[in-house]
Design goal:
Blueprint lengths: L2 H9 L6 H13 L4 H14 L3 H12 L15 E5 L7 H11 L4 E4 L10 H5 L11 H11 L1 E4 L7 H11 L7 H14 L4 E8 L8 H17 L3 E8 L8 E2 L1 H12 L5 H17 L6 H13 L2 H12 L10 H4 L5 E6 L4 E6 L1 H13 L13 E3 L7 E2 L4 E7 L2 H14 E4 L9 E5 L3
Parallel strand pairs: 1-4, 2-3, 4-5
Antiparallel strand pairs: 5-13, 6-9, 7-11, 8-10, 8-12, 9-11
Helix pairs in contact: 1-3, 2-4, 2-8, 4-9, 4-10, 5-12, 5-14, 9-10, 12-13, 16-17
Length: 438
Amino acid sequence: MLPQEIIRRKRDGYKLSADEIAAFITGLTAGSISEGQVGAFAMAVFLNGMSREEAVALTIAMRDSGDVLDWSDLPGPVTDKHSTGGVGDNVSLMLAPIVAACGAYVPMISGRGLGHTGGTLDKMDAIPGYASQPDVALFRKTVLETGCAIIGQTANLAPADRRLYAIRDVTGTVESVPLITASILSKKLAAGLGSLVLDVKVGNGAFMEKSRDAAVLANSLVEVANGAGLSASALVTGMNEPLASAAGNAVEVKNAVDFLTGRYRDRRLEDVTLALAAEMLQSAGLVSSNQDGIRRATEALAGGRAAAVFARMVSALGGPGDFIEKPEKYLPAAPVELAVKVDQDGFVTGIATRDIGLAVVTLGGGRSHPDDKIDHAVGLTGLLPVGAELHSGEALALVHARTNAEAEAAAAAVRAAYTIGGSKPPAEKTVLRRILPR
C-alpha cells in the first residue's frame, strides 16, 4: 500500500482499515516513510480524527512494531500509570516506588517532554549514571529485584511510537486524541502490563484545557486500552497551576526525593500521588477500596519503604548508591539563581501554567526541536501556589539559569504568568473525576 494513498484517504475523511494502518506503521518503523509523510499523516488524523476501531488498530500496530514483554514469571501483579503531561508533574518518581512498596510490580516506560510539558525520562536523566534506556535484561532484573523501574523505551519496545512521538512534538499535532491514545497505550501494551491507570490532566497547563476535552481523552484511553486487552481506568486531575513547586528536571528530582523522605511535600502533589496510588492498588487487586489504598500508600511513605525502593531502583540502574541521602551532591546545579520578586501585596489568584512550562523550555530545560539537548540543571523552584499570600519584595519563584540574561528573561515570563489580587480565591479540587470502562 502506498503511504501517500493512506494519507490521502485519511485526509479526505475515510475510515482506514486495520491493514492500512498496520502497513503505514510498518513503513514508519522501517524508515521507508519520510518524515514529511509521517507529519502529513499525523495532521490528517489531527484534523479528521479516528474511530474507536481505528485507534485500537493503530495502538496494536504500534505495540507490535517491536517486542512485547512478558511478566508472567513475577510473583505479584504488574501495573503502571501514565500522565498526559503537565507542569511540575513529577508524580511518577514517587508513585512507582510507593506502589512497589505495597506489593505490586511497576515496569514504568516513560517518555520525554512534549511541548511545554516536562518528561519523566528527562528528569531521570538528571541523575548521574542512571541508565534510563537499559536493555531488556537489566530492565527485567531491576523490576524483579526492586519492584519498579522508571525507564524510556528500549530499542525494541514500540519503536514506531518513538519516531511518531518526536515528529508530533514539532508539527503541531500533539493534541490529537487518537494519536495521544495510541502513543501512550502502545508503550504500555508493549510493557506487558496487567492493569493501567491514566492521569488525564485538565486546565491551562494541560494539553486538554477544557473539562469536556479531558473527558473525551480519558474515555478514549480507557476504551481503547480495554479494546486492546488491557484493563484500565482514569482519573481526571487539575492542572490550572504547577503540580509541584518545582519545574525543570534536576529540580523536580530533588523535589521528589524531598517528598519520598518527608523533608517537604507540596499539598496538591501529595493529593494526586496518593489518589493515583490507591487507584493502581485497586486495579492490581491489592486493596478492596480507595480508602484502603490511600492508607496503604500513606504507610509506605511514612515508614520509609517507598524511599528505600526508589534508592534501590536508582542504584540498580547505575545511579549513586547514596543518592536518596545526598541528592544535592549529584544533581547538576545552574550557576545563576534569581528570585522573581513582586512589588505589591496580595494573593496569587491565578497562574498561566503553560507559560511557566514554556519558561523552562526557553531556559533550556525542554526542546524546540526533536534533537535538542536538555539542560538538566535549569528550571524554577519555590513556585507559589494559587491562594498564597505575599507582600511586596517577596518572591514568586526562584529561577535557575545558565546566564544572567536568561535568568532575567525567565523571571519576566514567570512574573507575567502570575495574577495577583486582593482576596484569596477558593481552593480548586485536585482530583476531578474517575472514569471506568463502560
